[in-house]
Design goal:
Elements (H helix, E strand, L loop, with lengths): L7 H25 L7 E4 L2 E8 L12 H24 L3 H24 L2 E9 L2 E6 L1 H18 L14
Amino acid sequence: MRKVGPHARLGLVVAAVVLAADLATKRAVLDGLDLALGPVRVAPFLDLTLVWNRGISYGLLEQDTVLGRWLLVGITAAATVALLVWLLRTRSVLTATSLGLVVGGAIGNGIDRVVYGAVIDFVHFHVGDFSWYVFNLADAAIVAGAAGLVLEAVRGGPIDAAKGGSDG
């Protein structure tokens, strides 16, 4: 068994913070705002609007069946376990932080899918005729984490999984 990397705790703390913040914002939206009546304008470019996402990012692979829902739960769980293993072995601060962001977001959206059958999305950016998709804090964390992993790969840093978990 491989030794736990020096930044595993950092990654796990980041994952826990993302998960807690994601669940708290979703609970606040469900309990504190009646978005069923329509969007709430926060700024000229930002609305809060409730969308139940039954697919993955951008509503891809939308699943309306119980089997499809649990298939997505299973895929999310398997990917999260693989990312946790990587997180526990990494020797890079950026990789650990990035994986923590992705893992925390994946768990938050996974919990939604188990509890509600769909992911709670509610942040909607728009400018003029341009409208970004509706997302949540977990989605933003996943995107930021993926960007961190790409940055590490581009700058030539230690992407441990690509190097078999070596010190890089």
